[in-house]
Amino acid sequence: MIAKVRIHHLFLVIPVIAGMLVAGCGSTPPPQPAVTSTSDVASSTTPADPTGSAAPAEPTRSVPPAPATPFPAELVGEWSASTSKSGLLELVLTADGGFRQLSGTFDWRGKATVKGARITFTGVDGKSSTEDWSISGGTLTLAGLTYLKADAGAGGALALAGSWMGMDDIFETLTFSENGTYKRERDGGTTAIGSFKVQGDKLTLQPAGGAPTTADFSVADAILTLKTSAGTVQYVRSS
Predict the structure, then answer these.
(1) Which residues form the domain of 105?
(2) pTM for this predicted structure
(3) What are the pLDDT digits (tens) for 51-96?
(4) What is the C-alpha separation between 149 and 161, in angstroms, rounded?
């Protein structure tokens, strides 16, 4: 009797154990430890740049400045022009490019640089002006104005330098030299020698041992025009 009870009890327990086994087979497996890749480890262990700055750039090579253009020798000297609005204008240019412009109370000075047919004046006050320029036969054309060489110094031909033959009197010749002297001839003989000075549109002839004579003058298309109280005479360039 006791044996039967134990067998019966065994039959009751077996289904319970079987149910537990079935339930265990359908459960979620316990979580496994995560596997970290080598690259992840490397990136996580690399220290960050504390400054956050990018890699240094390649050093920039400095370009040497272009050599300065020599100041044209033909511009060097004293120049003068005359206008109805501003009166007498004077321009002084030196071999190192220094300049000084004078007109009445106006006095501007500084440095001039030339690039081709353009000249730039930069004053000590910081202001600048760029103009077209050209020289022909000792006459400087600058900003639409005609300047004549007012000195007898080196650095360019005088506007009057050369020989001029009379148009009203073809037997008369005036010869101006770059050293500031002149000679008047007639029929091949010398009638006067002396010095001359140009100031704006005024030409003063100072004959040796005589009184000076001042005339308004202009040079255009190789023709020299002199105007005095006695009248107007013209000469054409012959050399």
Answers:
(1) 73-149
(2) 0.48
(3) 555 556 666 676 665 555 689 988 988 888 776 676 778 899 999 9
(4) 10
